[in-house]
Amino acid sequence: MTIQLHDTMAGAARELVPLEPGHVRVYSCGPTVYGPAHIGNFRSFLFGDLLVRYLRYRGFRVTWVMNVTDVDDRIIKGARAEATTIGELSERHRKMLVSDMQTLGIAMPDFMPKATENIPQMVELIQKLLDGGHAYKTDDGSIFFRIASWPEYGRLARLDPEGMKVGERVEADDYAKDDVRDFALWKGPKPDEPSWETSIGPGRPGWHIECSAMSMRYLGPSFDIHTGGVDLVFPHHTDEIAQSEAATGQRFVAYWLHNAFLQMGAQKMSKSLGNIERVGDVIDRGISPRALRLALSSAHYRAPLSFGEDSLQAASSAIDRLDALFAALATYRCDGPDDATLPDLLDGARAAFEAALDADLNISPALAALFDLVRELNRRIDARVLSTADASRATAFIRDLDRVLGIAPALDESLDLELQKLVDDRAAARAARDWAASDRLRTVLAERGILVEDTRDGQRWRRGE
RNA sequence: GGCGACGUACCCAAGUGGUUAAGGGGGAGGUCUGCAAAACCUCUAUUCGGCGGUUCGAUCCCGCCCGUCGCCUCCA
Q1: Which residues have C-beta within 8 Å of that of residue A317, sequence separation ≥ 6?
Q2: Tens of pLDDT along A158-192?
Q3: How many angstroms separate the Cα of A266 from the Cα of each of A83, A128, A202, A236, A259?
Q4: Is nucleic acid strand B under 7 Å from A187's C-beta?
Q5: In Å, how far from its chain's centre is CA A72?
Q6: Per the structure, how many domains does chain A have?
Q7: pLDDT tens, A10-44?
Q8: Separation of CA A384 and C1' B41 in angstroms?
């Protein structure tokens, strides 16, 4: 079975065939670190994470690059307002980004290049465009991409290049240019703005050029997959394609993948709408990181995803259900023979799981396959048809699927000495049929975040939250 | 206006031209249990925004209408 991915350029799902067999090169548009990223941004990064995790699960070698934009108008403005440097401001927010990514269990990209550390690569690219007649310099030292030199401009967004001329946004840009549709590759120096001395003159990079330069640096002039939010289709990715392909003469990207927005009620979550929440806000409200991850992952990436208290509570409950199964499997003891039909059950679950994700990363049926399995395993635990070894096999199996999902409980499930003593004391109290003491200890443990449950295999515990 | 999507139960959300319309959450009842929790069982959409059309048959294809959202050089 092959992996199908919906390519925005084709407007349809296409079979993934890596340029280099067995190796997939992925570039994800990362954030501009002018402030803390909000969870809408993280939906995007989580989508990149799902893609990369699944490709790796399927046995591909993956090289994943996510850029960090650390120079732009908002960063400059922010640094000025705080009387600090763009370097300090952006590094502070980059660290928060990495921290939040770790909280959400997002795999660290192989490379997270900063724009300001790739200026020479951008300059080289811009020089090529100047040499090829695709770019021109204006009086203030800015350099623009000449859209008229690139007939295929706008294909990704299905734009009519002629129709764009009526766009009445001439005033939107402070820089003079030949054609309103032309976009900045390089912005000429201005007082009070950071500027780099380069062979194409002083100034700073435009927004789009960094992604072309950095993706090519780490992945080559032509690579497999480029991801980002739907809002980036135009102009960002449209411009990236034009400048990259005009410079190299090669197809830039083989598959363009775009995720839909996170919805807060009827609208997208966005800073300009003021309806944002941050990872820290949600965690501080007592929602576990895994529940947040599940809530942000539970719909297909190209479908708008509703976010709110209901979805967080639903995800928390689903995580609890998963945790309860792990706890039950860990405590389960039965000396009987192995369940002869368990291998078929697990094979069926895996087949359903993979079939769903093969189809353009359709995570909903994949989660359904997991939770179908959860129910069936609980049934078999109740019926005691599993052997002790079967319980271990089932645990290992779910952990294997979880390489893709990232929602299973942590592996390290040991308690500190004090809590372990309380757990042991309660087991002793129960053995002595001292219900008052055992109930009291159960309450004490619950207040410490440890949920104790009694089963015919004895007492078991799991972490709440 | 141009372009791109969407409307499935109380909420979230898959899906298929035709046997029972996934899964999660919530709710009701039940089993088990010292109690509790967890788990399991049963029930919770004769129906897929509305109206037409194509078809032996449509939620799924086509048209129109209603409603919602996104992008059109700030934007994951």
Answers
A1: none
A2: 887 665 544 443 334 455 678 888 999 999 999 98
A3: 37, 45, 45, 25, 17
A4: no
A5: 23
A6: 3
A7: 988 999 999 999 999 999 999 999 999 999 999 99
A8: 16
Domain shared by A159 and A257, yes or no: yes
CA torsion, ordered A327, A329, A332, A336, to nearest 10 deg: 180
Largest CA distance in chain A: 90
Domain holding A205, by residue range, is 15-273
φ/ψ of residue A434, rounded to 5: -95, 80
Per the domain annotation, does A303 fall within a domain? no
Between CA A223 and C1' B6 the distance (Å) reads 32
Q: Where are the beta strands (DSSP E) in A12-156?
A: 12-15, 23-28, 61-66, 135-137, 143-145
- Closest nucleotide to A311's CA, by C1' atom? B12
Chain B, protein-covered positions (CB within 7 A): 2-6, 11-15, 22-26, 33-41, 68-76
Q: How confident is the model at residue A455 (pLDDT cuts 50, 70, 90)?
A: very high
Domain of A394, CATH number, reads 1.20.120
Shared domain for A164 and A236, answered yes or no, is yes
Checking if the pLDDT of A330 tops 70, the result is yes
A302 CA to B58 C1', in Å? 25
Q: What is the ipTM of this complex?
A: 0.95
Count of alpha carbons within 13 angstroms of residue A298, beta-carbon side? 20
CB neighbour list of residue A56: distance below 8 Å, 6 or more residues apart: A62, A403
Q: Are residues A422 and A379 in the same domain?
A: no
pLDDT of residue A172: 42
Asked if A309 CB < 7 A from strand B, the reply is no
Whether A422 and A395 share a structural domain: no
End-of-domain residue from the set A383, A405, A427: A405
The answer to whether residue A280 is domain-embedded is: no
Contact between the CB of A181 and strand B at under 7 Å: yes
Cβ neighbours of residue A157 under 8 Å, at least 6 residues apart?
Answer: A233, A234, A235, A237, A238
Shared domain for A105 and A225, answered yes or no, is yes
Provide residues 418-437 of A with CB closer than 7 Å to any strand B atom.
430, 435
Does the CB of A155 sit below 7 A from strand B? no
Mean of per-residue pLDDT scores for chain A: 93
Q: Is the CB of A461 under 7 A from strand B?
A: no
